[in-house]
Amino acid sequence: MLSFSLLISQGKYEAKCMKVLLAASVACLCALATLTPVHAADAKIAVVAAENFYGDVAQQIGGEQVAVTSIMSSPDQDPHLFEVSPSVVRQLAGAQIVIYNGADYDPWMEKLLAATPKSGRGVIVAAELLHRKPGDNPHLWYDPATMPAVASALAAALSAVDRSHAADYTARLKSFLASLAPLNEKIASIRGKYAGVPVTATEPVFGYMADALKLKMRNERLQLAIMNDTEPSARDVAAFERDLKQHRVRVLFYNKQTSNTLVQHLVDLARASGVSVVGVTETCPPGVTYQEWMQNQLDATDRALPGPAS
């Protein structure tokens, strides 16, 4: 199987990501930020997360001592089409702790942080904690190892800023890690029943979780083409369609937050062919925790893997 890094070279993830941070634009936005600096209300620690699932974890670890802002939080928002606004710059300018994904998923964060320097600001990059780099699958929050690492880094960063509540952050970290046990048990259960079962996807969003479940992922070249907004080859499209029509895969995973004509065609073909379809997302739905979000998607996967005939 081709490695993700080799496949990604056919279409850099940055090509699909937003190219909105020209130097002049950043300078203009930063000038606006300096006019209206942000201060955390009630002396709370100002935490800014690029994505809302990291923001949710920050809230769980920080409790009442933090004021968390998540930049990308709308379930209807395509994360790859995000555009920076003056309000985002102001939030980052006032942040004491910043969390973002890295691995070129949110490259605008690095540019904005460089343009809004703040003494003593803590920066947590999930990709660095997991030793991931540009060219790796950037959807790190589906890797079961990611959130324990992020939560531990958050507890340490919060304790460094606010030593008087260090014991609280340590206690909340312990509770958070314990709350992941049902997810790990669910992963082990699905893996035990369905390891080796072939599946496919329209994008590699669920890739790390599929690896954790030991599912056999097919059609990775087409997934990368769709993610990078490049034209997949006719051969790859035909292979994907054969997998669906001939039931060579048990489940089709698709990104509910992005779509195009080809994606809709493949989803429709899967349903018409009797292949189970599971929608996944790149942001946490409103009103649920990271744990609930992952649990819901694992439950949907567990229901889908037996196939429609079960």
In short:
The chain is an alpha/beta fold. The chain is 49% helix and 13% strand. It is built from 15 helices and 8 strands.
Structural commentary:
The chain has 15 helices and 8 strands. It is of the alpha/beta class and 310 residues long. It folds into 2 domains: 163 residues, 3-Layer(aba) Sandwich (Rossmann fold), CATH 3.40.50.1980; 118 residues, Nitrogenase molybdenum iron protein domain (Rossmann fold). The strands form 2 sheets. It has a 4-stranded parallel β-sheet, sandwiched between helices. Strands 6-5-7-8 form a 4-stranded parallel β-sheet, with helices on both faces. α3 packs across α5. The two termini are 30 Å apart. About 12% of the residues have low confidence.
β content, as a range?
5-15%
Name the CATH architecture of the largest domain: 3-Layer(aba) Sandwich
Domains counted in the coordinates: how many?
2
- Return Rg in Å: 20 Å
CATH fold title of the largest domain: Rossmann fold
How many helices in DSSP terms? 15
Summed over residues and divided by their number, the pLDDT gives a mean of 87
Count of individual beta strands: 8
Terminal Cα span: 30 Å
Instruction: Describe the main β-sheet briefly.
Output: 4 strands, parallel
Structural class label: alpha/beta
- Summarize the amount of helix as a percent range: 40-55%
CATH class of the largest domain: Alpha Beta
SSE series: HHHEHEHEHEHHHHEHEHHEHEH
Low-confidence stretches: 5-41
By CATH's scheme, which homologous superfamily of the largest domain applies?
A: Nitrogenase molybdenum iron protein domain
